[in-house]
Amino acid sequence: MDILESILGSMEKPPTKDKKEKVLYEEQKKEYEKLKNREKDELNRFRTYVEGRLGRLVKDDKRHYMEFQPLDQVHRSIVHDIAETAGLSGISFGIEGADRYIVVYKKEHLPSEDELTARRNGGIWNKEVEQQYSEQRRFQHLELQQLLAERNKRQRKEADATTHPTSDYKQKYIHLIGKDAAMEGAKKTEVNRTYGYVPSENKKDVRSIEQTMADIQAKKKLKTEHTSEENNDYKTCSK
Where is the R3H domain (predicted)? Predict the structure, then answer.
């Protein structure tokens, strides 16, 4: 019995539940720290990679933009941050979580409306696509010019039909009123600009100031007398 007790006493006791949980927590913590450091190192390497690419873009006078592969939101934010620091402009295209990517442009060579349309529609952009959009735009311009020309032609035709009747009234009524009368009636009517004309000499008041004042006083006196007569007639009728 003493030997058995001594053997059991020398053996390590099994860990308690709290100790197991503590060990597991420490292991998970180490794994998390290791993963976190690995992600941090990866982002630092990616930042260095982006800085190198955008640095070459800035130095290359023949290149106007640089396109990156599809990236998640974290990596795109790094590209945006570095581009802004370098004085560049970054624009994202594509569907989030699927194929969203970023293109960094030099600010003096921002994308055209055609390029934005192509990329937003999920297409690519290169010299061939640019030529296709240019041809399409030229065709639309020619089509618009043709429509405008046809509309103007139609409007001129309608205006001519309004100002120049299609029927010839001289020939239509020549058998009724004769050729000379028809020609005379068909002459263009001209405006008599002297109608109602009054010479400027007749518009001037040639009276002197004294005569003008006397005429005014005479008119006032005549008006007063006329008013007085009307009042007397009214009083007589009232009686």
Answer: 44-107
97 SS3 class: coil
Domain at 22-123: CATH architecture: 2-Layer Sandwich (3.30)
Element of type H or E holding 102: strand 101-106
| CB neighbourhood size of 118 (10 A) | 20
For residue 21 the two structure tokens come to 């949980």
Kindly give the confidence (pLDDT) of every residue in the chain, 239 residues in length, as a single tens digit, with 9 standing for 90 and above: 556 566 556 655 555 557 778 878 888 888 888 888 999 999 999 999 999 999 999 999 999 999 999 999 999 999 999 999 999 999 999 998 889 999 999 999 999 999 999 999 999 998 899 899 888 888 888 888 888 988 888 888 887 776 655 565 556 656 665 566 555 655 555 555 555 555 656 556 666 677 777 777 887 777 776 666 655 655 555 55
Integer Cα distance of 66 and 70 in angstroms: 13
Query: What does the alpha-carbon distance between residue 152 and residue 167 come to, in Å, rounded to a whole number?
Result: 24
C-beta of residue 118 within 8 angstroms of C-beta of residue 129: yes
* Per-domain boundaries in the chain: 22-123, 126-190
Please tell me whether residue 88 adopts helix, strand or coil conformation: strand
